[in-house]
Design brief:
Order of helices and strands: HEHEEHEHEEHEEHHHHH
Largest sheet: 3 strands, antiparallel
Number of domains: 3
Number of strands: 8
Distance between the termini: 88 Å
Number of helices: 10
Strand order of the largest sheet: 1-3-2
Length: 229
Amino acid sequence: MHASVIASFLGASDLATTRSSMKRLVSIVEKRAVVRARELYPFGVHPHDLSKAASQGLLVRIGRGLYTRRDFPSNFEHQVALACQRIPDGIVCLQSALAWHGILPPDPGHIWMAIDRKAKKPVVDGLKLRFVRFSGRALTQGVINTKIDGVPVRIYSAAKTVADCLKYRRKIGSDLAARILQESIAGKKCSEQRLRHFAKICRVYKIVHVAYLSADPSVRTLHPRMIVS
C-alpha cells in the first residue's frame, strides 16, 4: 500500500476517533451539567479533548479543570450550582440561602458561602462569591443537602439562615436583618422552635425572643434598633 494512502487512512481513522470522543464528551457534560476534568478520566476523556471541545465552542470552561455545557443557564439556581461545584466544602448562606427559600428575591450580584473558620480563602475566577467564616455547630448544623442538575448543593435551612443573618447583621445591614426576622415570623417561613434553636447557636436568642414577644396576630413592626447590640 502506498505511503500516502496509509497516511490518509490513518488520518481518517484519527478523525473518526476524535469525533466519537467529542460526541461522548458532550453527551456526558449535558447529563451532568458541570464536570471536573478528573471525573472524565474513567471515560477515556483526556485534558486535550476538553481544551479542544472548549475551543470549538462545544463546552464552556468556567474554571481550572471545570467545564459546563454551552447552553448552561445563568439564572440564580444555576449560579448556586456553579458556586457549590467550585467550592465543594462551602455552604450557601445568608441572602443567597434566603433567596433559595423564597424569603428574599435573588441577588444577581454574588453568591454568599460559608466556609470553615480555619479554611484557606478560595481563589475563584469567573464567579462573584462572598465568604463568611463559621465554626463549630454554627458551621455544621442546619445544612440541607440537595442537587441542581445533578450537582450536589449544600445550603442552610430557612431557620438557620435567619439566625445567621441576625448574627451577621453588620454585614448585611440591621434594617434588612430586622425585615428578614419580621417577615420570617409573619410568613411562618420556619418554625419558632427551630429558629429559637439556631438563635441559641448563633448567640442571637434574645433578639429572636423579643421578636416573638412583640409579634401578635397583626404582627407589629420590629424596629431595627431592637436588633442593634
